[in-house]
Amino acid sequence: MNTETNFPSLATLEYFPYIDDNGQLPEQFQGKIGVYAIFNQEKVLQFVGYSRDIYISIKQHLVRQPQRCYWLKVQTIERPNRTVLESIEQAWIAENGSVPLGNGDNKDKWTNPINVKAIMTFEEKANYEKPVNDELTQIKIIKNVARRVEAEILAVLEARGLQVQIRFNPKLKEEGLLDLK
Known about the structure:
The chain is α+β, with helices and mostly antiparallel strands and 181 residues long. The chain has 2 domains: 10-110, GIY-YIG endonuclease (3-Layer(aba) Sandwich), CATH 3.40.1440; 114-178, no CATH class. The protein has helices at residues 54-64, 82-96, 107-111, 122-128, 135-159, 170-173, and strands at 16-17, 33-39, 45-51, 71-77, 114-115, 177-178. The strands form 2 sheets. Strands 1-4-2-3 form a 4-stranded antiparallel sheet, with helices on both faces. Strands 5-6 form a two-stranded antiparallel ribbon. Strand 2 (33-39) and strand 3 (45-51) form a beta hairpin. The protein is elongated, with a radius of gyration of 18 Å. The mean pLDDT is 94. InterPro entries: CAXIP1-like_GIY-YIG_dom. It comes from Mojavia pulchra JT2-VF2.
């Protein structure tokens, strides 16, 4: 099932829980190349993507969109081939009948680091924009915002039972970005 024209439809693939009963992500996809579809709690398609390491990608998506990542469907391939991967991705989106939210206007929320500047509280924004602030003070403020958002994400994942260690890249926090290390 690894040729360009011979891959399964999305409907025929089995669902995998995003977080299993032991609080783990599906480790069988570590280091695997392929296409994956992410579904919410009601099994409504949220995002279709492809990756050279599905496990790392789905871990990133879970951190970026924890409320939307409950179920997975996956098709692996042996060798990286962008044409094949894009063909499967487009076929699954077409099969869905509409573009999933994560592949449309909200794609950056699924594929880019979290920009904490966009989710600052009014108070945080006011402190950050004070004219008396030097660059060092602004970096300190933005790092604190990043830590707050990180703690909120980790609390959501802990409440879902996740046992996998999540480590954010500390260097990016200074820029107001959260992404996994």
